[in-house]
């Protein structure tokens, strides 16, 4: 149990276009999902916390108008990178926290999406 | 702000030796401390975690210790094997915002046969 999927796994796009990444909890409901960005040989940097039915909470320095997050249901959160530029190329990983479980803090990670902006 | 420091950044050991990775955290309200193993291009995998009401936890060759007073926790891997080679991240929960996790910078562990 506790499986999280992401789609697509890889995407290559032209500079200036927008890219949508989906994060789904397959066998549990998640009121809270997290979006991370990981540059090569670096750590996971939290971008934003996504809550079902409410606005996302963005970390300091993350542009909310550039990285649009929608958590429309208890099993789906999407991250849209708008007007992507080469510096947005990175590994984007989501995680989900199961609703109503005793392990309140535990997060389950998706497989990641590698974005390359040309 | 919240911060997690992790050392060393790289660690090279011989197969069969032990490996120790250390982390310190700044948020005194942190109460959950997971350790993740990440292979190249893959998702982080939880290998062990500890909560603030426990000082030590062990799972086969892996153990974690927590010193709340010093805000310090460590990962211990015994009898290392080549397949233990990966990047290891520590993390600490933050009460500021839905119990998000703050990650350390990572330790690249290489186990040589």
Give an overview of the whole structure:
The complex is a heterodimer of chains A (118) and B (113). Chain A has 118 residues and is an all-beta fold. Chain A has no helices and eleven strands. Chain A has strands at residues 4-7, 10-13, 19-25, 32-38, 45-51, 57-58, 67-73, 76-81, 90-97, 108-109, 113-117. Chain A is globular and about 40 Å long. Chain A starts with a strand and ends with a strand. Chain B has no helices and eleven strands. In chain B, the strands form two sheets. In chain B, strands 2, 4, 5, 9, 10 and 11 form a six-stranded mixed sheet that branches. Chain B is mostly beta strands and 113 residues long. The A-B interface holds A 32, 34, 42-46, 49, 51, 57, 60, 91, 93, 97, 104-107, 109-112, 114 and B 1, 31-32, 34, 41-46, 49, 89, 93, 97-106.
Q: Largest beta sheet of chain A, briefly? A: 7 strands, mixed
> What proportion of the residues of chain A form beta strands (DSSP E)?
over 45%
Q: Report the structural category of chain B.
A: mainly beta
Helix count from the secondary structure assignment of chain B: 0
Number of helices of chain A: 0
Anisotropy-based shape of chain B = globular
Q: What's the overall average pLDDT of chain B, rounded?
A: 93
Strand content of chain B: over 45%
> Main beta sheet of chain B: strand number and arrangement?
6 strands, mixed
Determine the N-to-C terminus distance of chain A. Answer: 37 Å
List strands and helices in order, with pairings.
The complex is a heterodimer of chains A (118) and B (113).
Chain A: E1 4-7, E2 10-13, E3 19-25, E4 32-38, E5 45-51, E6 57-58, E7 67-73, E8 76-81, E9 90-97, E10 108-109, E11 113-117
Parallel strand pairs in A: 2-11
Antiparallel strand pairs in A: 1-3, 3-8, 4-5, 4-9, 5-6, 7-8, 9-10, 9-11
Chain B: E1 4-7, E2 10-14, E3 19-25, E4 32-38, E5 45-51, E6 56-59, E7 62-67, E8 72-77, E9 86-94, E10 100-103, E11 107-112
Parallel strand pairs in B: 2-11
Antiparallel strand pairs in B: 1-3, 3-8, 4-5, 4-9, 6-7, 7-8, 9-10, 9-11
């Amino acid at each position: 149990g506790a499986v999280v999927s992401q789609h697509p796994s890889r995407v290559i796009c032209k500079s200036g276009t927008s890219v949508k990444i989906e994060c789904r909890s397959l066998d549990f409901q998640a009121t809270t999902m997290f979006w991370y960005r990981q540059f090569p040989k670096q750590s996971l940097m939290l971008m934003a916390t996504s809550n079902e039915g409410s606005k996302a909470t963005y970390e300091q320095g993350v542009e909310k108008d550039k990285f649009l997050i929608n958590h429309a249901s208890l099993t789906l959160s999407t991250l849209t990178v708008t007007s992507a530029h080469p510096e947005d190329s990175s590994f984007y990983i989501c995680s989900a926290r199961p609703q109503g479980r005793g392990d309140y803090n535990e997060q389950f990670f998706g497989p990641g999406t590698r974005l390359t902006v040309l | 702000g919240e911060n997690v420091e992790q050392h060393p950044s790289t660690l090279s050991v011989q197969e069969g030796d032990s490996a120790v990775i250390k982390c310190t955290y700044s948020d005194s309200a942190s109460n959950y401390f997971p350790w993740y193993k990440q292979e190249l291009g893959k998702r982080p995998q939880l290998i062990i975690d500890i909560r603030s009401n426990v000082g030590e936890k062990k799972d086969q060759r892996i153990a974690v210790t927590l010193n709340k007073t010093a805000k310090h926790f460590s990962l211990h891997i015994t009898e290392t094997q080549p397949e233990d080679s990966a990047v290891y991240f520590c993390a600490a929960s933050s009460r500021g915002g839905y119990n998000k996790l703050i990650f350390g910078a990572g330790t690249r562990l290489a186990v040589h046969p």
